[in-house]
Amino acid sequence: MAGRSRVVILGAGESGIGAAKLAQLKGFDVFVSDYGVITDKYKAALEKLSIPFESEKHTEELILNANEVIKSPGIPSTAPIIKKLVEKGISVVSEIEFAKRYTNAKVICITGSNGKSTTSLLTYHILKNAGLNVGLAGNIGQSFAAQVATEDFEYYVLEISSFMLDDMFRFRADIAVLLNITPDHLDRYDYKLENYAASKMRIIQNQTQNDVFIYCADDEESIKALMHIKPLAKTYAFSIVKEVETGAYLKAETIHILTEPNKELTMSISDLALQGKHNIYNSMASGIVAKVLELRNDTIRESMGNFKNIEHRLEHVAKISGIDFINDSKATNVNSTWYALESMTTDVVLIMGGVDKGNDYSMLKDLVKSKVKAIVCLGKDNKRIHDAFEDDVDVIVNTFSAEEAAQIAFHLAKRGDAVLLSPACASFDLFKSYEDRGNQFKAAVREL
Fold first, then answer.
1. CB atoms within 10 A of CB 387
2. 214 near 241, Cβ under 8 Å?
3. What span, in angstroms and rounded, lies between the C-alpha atoms of 199 and 197?
4. In what residue span(s) does the Mur ligase central domain sit (predicted)?
5. Which of 60, 142, 189, 282 is the most exposed place for a label (fewest CB within 10 A)?
């Protein structure tokens, strides 16, 4: 086997396993290392492919001999193993960067502090309905690398986080969308908003005048960042407060999308499937992408009118006494709960817990401190949640049924708050599946 280039993958989650599949397919000598516990599903996937791996440790002599390392977005650049790799001059990239080398598909990359998942799903929905051969990846769905290895899509809609962008260097987006920049997980950015903003702006790195950049003209931090970085790409802005020349704007309850003269799409906001101010922005961004790709107006309108956000993924259940109840039962890992909390704009009563898969809750700490007023545990053994967050929230309560969890959360919340079921754990201690957990929660909310 001498002479084969060695690729080491750090982190054996969805993106790590996908990267391992693609690297093996491309003839690399592959090794996977995870400092945490590798789930049975991903262990089985690696065993099936006969890819060597290690769990709950990083063995330096098996990692520091890599030609290149692909790291999970969850691993910060301050992790000791990453520092050692950088000191040795070993290239460390994201799965997205690695996978992009092996596809000629057009990539539509969507980033922002809030609304990424919804906008990515809506954009994918519009493109798919218009008959394009399109995949959905990044922070959402199946890993990009796994799809590059096994599918033959001509377009990809990629939901991209700042953590991914930090490990992207040569990657180029054909269409880049920046929804907004709000102060978020600044612990990874030396507590400086400008560092986080610079990370988000990497979405336009390597773009040429043949590419497209779409941004929000109402977002203060995006505008500030654009004063320092001039995009080479063709730019389109969207706004709900002023008219823009090319892009999208709101006037008299109607969205106007104009990517070139005399080719305007108009749509009443009451016809949009996604309601709420933040969703007008998301719909505008998706609509501009569709117009840039020259899809037909009636196709775009139809898709923007019939889109359904996936069940059990940040699904709005009801508003009771001014409290929003949100079902995110599909969040069976810490990462998903992190995204759910990241998207919240109000104080949150968080319902979490279940079968803990060796979760590292530390990545949630800052979001819990800033947004969560109480945690309602829903599971048989909640000790690790208490240990993780006892210093960050005033109230942590144990419950053992969806009904009990919904009732207690309702009492802990006040008008204007949100009750969010986003468990960060598997459901099998009390429920048949995450769908069963979500459905029982929804039924319990409707009984309140």
1. 10
2. no
3. 5
4. 110-289
5. 60
Whether 375 is covered by a domain: the verdict is yes
Domain range enclosing 59: 6-93
Strand-pairing partners, residue 177, are: 110, 214
In the annotated binding site for ATP, the residues are: 112-118
CB 153 within 8 A of CB 317: no
Counted residue by residue, the chain has a size of: 448
C-alpha separations of 200 from 229, 237, 343 in Å: 12, 16, 16
Residue 87 domain flag: yes
State how far the Cα of 207 lies from the Cα of 192, in Å rounded to an integer.
Answer: 26
Last residue of a domain, one of 266, 285, 306: 306
pTM: 0.73
7's enclosing H/E stretch is strand 6-10
- Classify residue 1: in a domain, yes or no: no
Is residue 171 located within the same domain as residue 220? yes
Measured between alpha carbons, how far is residue 10 from residues 44, 79, 84, 147, 151 in Å? 17, 11, 13, 19, 24
User: For 58-102, how does the pLDDT look when each residue is reduced to its tens digit (9 = 90+)?
Assistant: 999 999 999 999 999 889 889 999 999 999 999 999 999 999 999
Q: DSSP readout, 407-425?
A: HHHHHH--TT-EEEE--SS
| Domain assignment of residue 106, yes or no | yes
One domain, residues 151 and 220: yes
214 and 300 fall within a common domain: yes
For the domain that residue 337 is a member of, what is the CATH number? Answer: 3.90.190.20
Task: Count other Cβ atoms within 10 Å, centred on residue 331.
Answer: 26
Which residue type sits at 141? G
